[in-house]
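Posting this for the archive.
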Amino acid sequence: MPDITLLPLLADYFHVSTDQLLGLKPLDGETYIPEQTATKDFWNQKLEYLLRTRKNGWNDDYARFLISQVWKIDQPVSVLDCGCGYGFLGLLLLPYLPDGSTYTGIDFADDLIKKGKTLFESQNIKAEFLCDNVFEYSAENRYDLVICQAVLRHLDDPAAFIRKMITFAKPGGYVVCIDSNREFECCGLYIDGMDYQELCRHEGLEKKWRTELAMQGRDYAVAIRTAHMMRKLGLIDVDVRMNDKAEFVTTQSPDYEKTKRDFIQYYDWTSGIRGAEREKLILHLLTHGLSRREAEDYCNRNIAIADFFADHPSAGYTFVKGKMISYGKKAGEIR
């Protein structure tokens, strides 16, 4: 712990700033590293993550309501699910679509495609799965309903993805994009027994979101912008709905232990972020615009949640992700 008067001398000796010496800013050369969420390798490792997170994301009656009352689908339709993963949307929507409807899923992660084929075959559901990159795929057919879920926020160019989706749609067909707004999500968690205002805090994360948008085009607020993108790309009758799902989980909930365990594992709250992993994450956040104080607060919040769940094995929680459903119809050829 050197005397404060020595810090400028030490910084000069190592050719760094005093902020870099104190770990408040990243060292030269520790520059922005793009997030890898738009890559095949990233998603091939996320099968368990998807299986845990997708199943609690919808109320089935709301999916039925969208189909029958909002989109008013009363004739068989062909569905193309872009970035389908293991085909969750197909399993969700097909029971409520008119008999004779077809489902095609496309994803570049071959492990997810294989899982999708297995799941659909085990339930005797006919479907087609394509292992291909949506950006590079040339569809021979056009579809009545082109849809994606939890895809846009992981992409470097979400507008280009929507534009590609529109090319797959028939004139008059629906294009639907479902995603969560990160700001809503941060304020959507309450753990019974913890301070809600502390749980809502996300100082510094706005800097991360802004940095990633500027450096690589990844947009954590894409959900709230999607309908405007759709209108500018030529879709008509554009509108937005909110998914009505809210997770209310207590010891009286069916499958309480499994549901809570999946939730904790999804957010990596099994043990918190500690030691070398904590410092590695802090340094990563520094290169994405956060100050060290903000990065440490983020890690400490996660540790506090992990510790609370560990110390309170019967804890309950409410979680609302703020999932937005943007949709519009294709009037003609894309502009």
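The mean pLDDT is 88. The first strand starts at residue 78 and ends at 82.
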